[in-house]
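Design review, sub-item: ligand-bound model
Attendees: FS, YL, KQ
YL presented the inputs for the LYUYDEPV complex:
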Amino acid sequence: MICDCWQVRNGDGAPNYTEDCLACGTNKKANIENAAAKIAAASKQGAEIIVLPECFNSPYGTKYFPEYAENVIEGGQSETALMLSTAARDNKVFIVGGSFPEKEGEKIYNSCYIFNRDGDMVARHRKVHLFDIDIPGKITFKESDTLSPGDCPTIVDLSEHGGPPVRMGIGICYDIRFPELALLYRHLGCSMLVYPGAFNMVTGPAHWELLLRARAVDTQSFGIVCSPARDESADYIAWGHSMIVDPWGEKLGELQEKEDILMVDLDLTQLAKVVSRRQNMPYWLQRRQDIYKLSSPFMPEKKPSPDK
Ligand SMILES: NC(=O)CCC(=O)C(=O)O
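KQ shared the predicted structure:
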C-alpha cells in the first residue's frame, strides 16, 4: 500500500499546504518508518501541518485490522502513535495522523490521532460511518466485520495549540459521504474539513473529487482528502488523488496515483476567502430552519452558529 500525506506550513504568516505519497505494504514496521521518513522530508520542505492517509500502517482490509490494531489508550504501547508523537515533536509540526486500526477492549476502531508540535495528542477521531457496501460485480466491503464505529464528531482548533487560525473538522473516508457531519462541523465553527481516505477504483473515479468539492461548497470551507497511493498488487486498490480544494470548490492541488509530494500555499488571504465567500453568498444564514433543521446532541442549544 502506498500513502499520501498532506501538510500545511506557516511561513511568514502564510500557512502552506502540501501532500506526500508514501509506500505502505504488509510490513507494519516498514510502513511506520516510511511514514516517519516522509514526515521529516515534508517538514524539511517547510510543512507545518502534515496529514497522512487512512490506514497508513497496514493494508486496507478487514482481515488485516485485528492483526495491525494497536492499543493507544488503556496504557497501550502503540508504536504507531509513538512514531506520530515523536515525529510531531522532532519536526515541530502538527500531524493529522491519517488512520490506523485501534484496539480498545474487544473493539477495533478506524482511528485518526492528531498531535501538536510538542508531540502531545490533542484529538482522536474514530470513523463514525463504517464502509459497508455491496455493488455486485464491482466491490463488496464490510468494515463492520471487524470494526466498530466511533460516536463523536472531532474538531481540532489549531489556534488553541499555538498554530494558525484553522479550525478543522475531521472525518475518515466514508464519513465524507454524509453531508450532515460536514454541516455539523460548519455549525461548530470549522473552516476546514479533513478526510484521510482510501476510495477504490470503482467509487474513486466516480465520487472522490465530487464529494470533496460538494462538502467544501456545502460548508464554504477548505476541503482536504488524503489517500494512499495506488498499489495494483493490493487486495484493495486505492484510487489515490489526494486533493485540496478551497471554499469555492476550486482545486488548489492534486496528486495522481503515485507516491508523491504536493505542497499548496494557503496564505492568510486565502483563509480570508472563507469569510468573504460566506459573506458574498450567505446561504448559511438563508437556511429555512422552519422547513428543515440539523439536529445533533453535539450542537449547543443556545450558542448561535458561527457563520461569518
Ligand atoms: N475506506 C473507505 O471508507 C472507502 C470509502 C469509499 O470508497 C466510498 O466510496 O465511499
